[in-house]
Amino acid sequence: MRLENVWLRYHRRGPWVLRDAAIGIAPGEAAIVQGRNGAGKSTLLQLAAGVLRPTRGRVVERPTVVGWVPERFPADQPFDVHYYLVAMGRMAGLTPVEAGRAVDHWTERLGLARFRRVRLPELSKGTAQKVGLAQAMLRPPGLLVLDEPWEGLDASSRELVPELIDEVLADGGSVLVSDHRGETVRLPGARRWTVAAGEVDEVAPTEGQAYAVVEIAVPAAQVAGTVTRLRADGHRVLGVHLDRLGATDGAGRETAAAEGRPGDAPVPDPEPPDVAVSGSTTASTASGGQVAR
Ligand SMILES: Nc1ncnc2c1ncn2[C@@H]1O[C@H](COP(=O)(O)OP(=O)(O)OP(=O)(O)O)[C@@H](O)[C@H]1O
């Protein structure tokens, strides 16, 4: 998806909000849109999503299926969550059966199952925001556009956003996300665009921002297969060690940082670890070795 010399103003004689924006994003890429309040981030996202049309210029190669989550979910509608989402799935081109399945999947996944029969105006802001996320994911989007997606979400739900983003990227989709709260540190691989004084620019990536180290735990018997799969997916495996102290519980959840603890013993790696990446940041997840993407 690319903006080609896009200009936008809301009224005929109004000020230009965006001037000559020329920027694009490829399949499998994410970009974070940053800028001060009122700079034009939402405007840029709406142009990308096709919600707004450029006053001048054009947007090309927009994927057929676009998921757009506005900053505020429009909850002032007389429907319950299930009815609303099924209707949105139908509007997105799903058959009744597909829409029903997709709604069941996403309401379950986003913790909305118990709100199925609750009417939209009665939802809290965070729950309404999750309905917006579910709506955007009903058909796997080729482009997912998220305007301040963390707004209103409680701490336990915030992790959902990077999870969904990763899934869209893994399926070859693109993601645009605006964020003024600094939550996008959770997306270390994303490109960064800034909007200021009507201009959209890309911030050049600095060395070391391009990688993150993800610590994961797998049953010891599955190490070889996991390492092989991670390498096949293009990840670098930096090391493998045995967790003798039980720092992870049975469900694979981590209860302490694992590396370098007394009692850890190296387990044979099917191949030697790849060269370590310098300047990387660390983060923990709940699934499988020590890898960098
Ligand atoms: N529907 C509209 N009609 C007229 N002006 C608008 C409209 N929507 C936005 N604007 C103006 O366009 C400019 C950019 O707004 P926009 O919402 O895109 O900024 P933003 O960077 O997303 O801000 P925020 O971080 O506060 O959401 C602002 O001056 C705003 O007042």
TrEMBL record:
Look up keyword Ligase and say if it applies. Answer: no
Instruction: For this UniProt record, give its keywords in alphabetical order, as a comma-separated list.
Output: ATP-binding, Nucleotide-binding, Transport
| A Pfam family that the UniProt record links to this protein | ABC_tran
Xref: InterPro entries = AAA+_ATPase, ABC_transporter-like_ATP-bd, ABC_Transporter_VariousFunc, P-loop_NTPase
SMART domains named among the record's database cross-references: AAA (SM00382)
| Coiled-coil residue spans | none
Q: Where is the composition biased (Low complexity)?
A: 248-264, 274-293
Q: Is ATP-binding given among the entry's keywords?
A: yes
Q: Quick one: where's region Disordered?
A: 248-293
Where in this chain does the record put each ABC transporter domain?
1-222
Offer an example of a GO molecular function term for this protein: ATP binding
Protein's recorded name: ATP-binding cassette domain-containing protein
